[in-house]
Amino acid sequence: MTAFRASPFAPALVVTLRTIAIVGLAMVVLFPVYWMAVIALTPTGLGRQVMTFFPASPTFENFVTLFTERPMARWIWNSILVATLASAISLAFGTSCGYALSRLRFRGAGLLLIAVLTTQMMPATSIVVPLYMLFRAWGLLDTMHGMVVGHVSLVVPLATWMSKGFFDSIPTDLESAARIDGCTHGAAFVHIALPLAMPGLAAIFIYGFVTSWHDFLFSRTLVNSQELWTAANGISSFRGEYFTLQELQMAAALVFALPVVVVFFVMQRWIVSGALSGSIR
Amino acid sequence: MASVDFRSINKRYDALDVLRDVDIAIPDGEFVVFVGPSGCGKSTLLRMLAGLETITGGTISIGTDVVNALPPRDRDIAMVFQNYALYPHMSVAHNIGFPLRMVGTPRPEIERRVSEAAEMLGLTPYLSRLPRELSGGQRQRVAMGRAVVREPSVFLFDEPLSNLDASLRVRMRGEIKRLHQRLGTTMIYVTHDQIEAMTLADRIVVLRAGKVEQIGTPLELYNTPANPFVAQFIGSPSMNILEGVIAEEGRARIGETLIEIGGPHPGFSPNASVQIGIRPHDIALAEPGRGALAGELQLIEEMGNSRLLTIEVGGEPVQLETQLQVALRPGEAVHLALSRDKLHLFPA
């Protein structure tokens, strides 16, 4: 970063150009979000007629419509349910697998890790059809728990790898000490390894939540009934074959973005660096 | 308080023999140091006793119980790790009290014993700090506090001082020794540092390549080493070993020089090759003449109270420690007299 810090001797022109470049870049990145808000605040049906950069007569009617005439609350709730369950299950599963892979020495551990990673390399598009057939055979199609299972399959491989990485960074001597100090293997995991891996687990939870929250492909494929749709699916429903309700869609997209921000802010306090320092040496 | 008994201990990793037929009996209350170069198996032996490594063959007993199949928490031991292994998310008080909490000791009892241990180790002002807020020596003390507070029957130390700077190491060494004198509990201490071994131990176990080379008190090891390895490992600067041949009764030949070896030395027949060991301070500079080894002075290292000379004799370096402060220059021809009563003879 030091290379980019403006030194007191840098010519004013360079500083000015640099500032303009940064502001320009920020505007390019943020403008779509801003435009989303502008359209969402425009009266329904008038989105295409906005001529300025500001909504002429801002209104919240789109948001009201979303929650009164459309089942937006239901979709958001579904999304929260699916994303929370999927990331929690992935976290529990990935953490135990990752811990085992980090601590136990057994034949084929390396191969297993590669195999887990390989599943992550598969594009979701290529597994969605086999998954559909499996789910049809098991009667999981068009169910909430089916969708949770689908999302777990998306998140678990990386969750396993990430948690293995976090546990690898915790010295095994800490758990050895705990076992001498009266812990079973399990108690050493709960009292020592788990609290120390907390920042990593928070990161995994966020990753799982966001992955599941953003998923459109699985929820579109595995679920039909409108009352089971997730919000991602719901947003797409404003786009018809001949006509798109842009104002409603943008309002829904704004509502859709909020919970992820909330989850991130709640979880980020766990993501602190230096949790391990002082344990050894 | 308990004795510890290693019987025919073997340890094998895949095709690698780490320990072979190790037999060590440690009576109750003794301070025993396992010493040896890296990779000799000393830490493995300690970790097997702690229950952190499986035992390939043989039995380990603590007191009267064979502990081979017992998990670490049931062995009634405490261990101080080389890297301290403090729990970074717990305060000093919680670190020290952790073993007590795990066995369900009542809270007032925990508080009493933690403050006792902290008092003993000078940690009272730091009880609410986290390990990362402590210096190396303080962390070391916390690790010791966590061991002491349990009142175990055996203490294990795995190179506990190797991460400290030299002066702190000497101070902590004294504290560990005092701790043993105060508690009288059996202690097993692993180190690669022979000075630590000499200063701390009631008895030393010298290990090399997974085998016990010699067991004895520090002075036994120093005065009567069983073989050239122990002879050179114990004592600093280390013992010189010269190749020679037994010439006649009471004499041996090193190169062309006949030296007095005293005797009799049973087991050494004339014309047998022999390794002659002598400590650097048992060699003196001498006038040329009978029984004096001729050599060339190569290196002079001043140590203040004495100086260490490295002299090439017959192509081999020989070290000599002297308090003579005469003027010497590298390259000079010198003659060495070996003190007859201080020679150690080993079969070659």
In spatial order, strands of the major sheet of chain B run 6-7-8-3-9-10
Series of secondary-structure elements of chain B, N-terminal to C-terminal: EEEHEEEHHHEHEHEEHHEEEEEEEEEE
**Sequence of secondary-structure elements of chain A:** HHHHHHHHHHH
> What's the tally of helices of chain A?
11
Offer a quick outline of the entry.
Chain A is mainly alpha-helical and 281 residues long. Chain A contains 11 helices and no strands. Chain A folds into 2 domains: 2-61, no CATH class; 71-280, MetI-like (MetI-like fold, Orthogonal Bundle), CATH 1.10.3720.10.
Describe what this molecule looks like in 3D.
The complex is a heterodimer of chains A (281) and B (348). With 281 residues, chain A is mainly α. Chain A has 2 domains: 2-61, no CATH class; 71-280, MetI-like fold (Orthogonal Bundle), CATH 1.10.3720. Chain A is 69% helix and 0% strand. Chain A is globular, with a radius of gyration of 24 Å. Chain A starts with 11 loop residues before the first helix and ends in a 14-residue tail after the last helix. The mean pLDDT of chain B is 92. With 348 residues, chain B is an alpha+beta fold. Chains A and B meet through helix 7 and helix 8 of A and strand 6, helix 2 and helix 4 of B.
Give a topology summary.
The complex is a heterodimer of chains A (281) and B (348).
Chain A: H1 12-40, H2 61-68, H3 72-103, H4 109-121, H5 124-138, H6 144-168, H7 172-180, H8 185-214, H9 217-222, H10 231-236, H11 246-267
Helix pairs in contact in A: 1-11, 2-11, 3-6, 3-8, 4-6, 6-8, 7-8, 8-11
Chain B: E1 4-13, E2 16-26, E3 31-35, H1 42-50, E4 57-62, E5 65-66, E6 77-80, H2 92-102, H3 107-121, H4 136-148, E7 154-158, H5 166-183, E8 186-191, H6 194-200, E9 203-208, E10 211-216, H7 218-223, H8 228-233, E11 240-248, E12 251-254, E13 257-260, E14 273-278, E15 283-286, E16 293-302, E17 307-313, E18 316-322, E19 333-338, E20 344-347
Parallel strand pairs in B: 3-8, 3-9, 6-7, 7-8
Antiparallel strand pairs in B: 1-2, 1-4, 4-5, 9-10, 11-12, 11-14, 12-13, 14-20, 15-19, 16-17, 16-19, 17-18
Helix pairs in contact in B: 2-3, 2-4, 3-4
